[in-house]
Amino acid sequence: MSEQNTIGADRAVSLQYTLSGSDGTVIESGQIDYLHGYQNIIPGLESALDGAAVGANLQVEVPPELGYGERMEVEPQRVPRTSFPPEMEIEPGMQFHARGPQGEALPVWVVGVEDGIVLIDPNHPLAGETLHFDVTILSVRAGTAEELQHGHIHGPDGHGHH
Ligand code: ZN
Q: For residue 154, how far is its CA from the centre of ligand 1 (angstroms)?
């Protein structure tokens, strides 16, 4: 057994995934590169991948509380379009941060745009969903000292993101 090829804390993981909803409809698919143990990905998926080896194929079911949370029953908030930069394209699915009561940053999502009004909702688009992941582990390597310090991985080009 080689731990080199196994997912665990401080490992940089690359995986291919297909995400489907409860009804089997494919929501998205693609590749994720993340640093294991730093909450880069939803908790239910991260814990299921612990100990998995390169090449492994896993089916992972993630309940809402370990995914994007339960759905809050709230009406979307109506925000004037003028609150956003005019040059910015505003589209459903976009994420912003709003200021909470204590000045904290709260994630919100655009759920609609109509006549000068942007509708925003505090629910992640996948809140309340039981998620089904089909995951194949592509590669696992040790995180670099810098990556561990930052708590996320850096791309093959090094430090492009900041
Ligand atoms: Zn960084």
A: 6
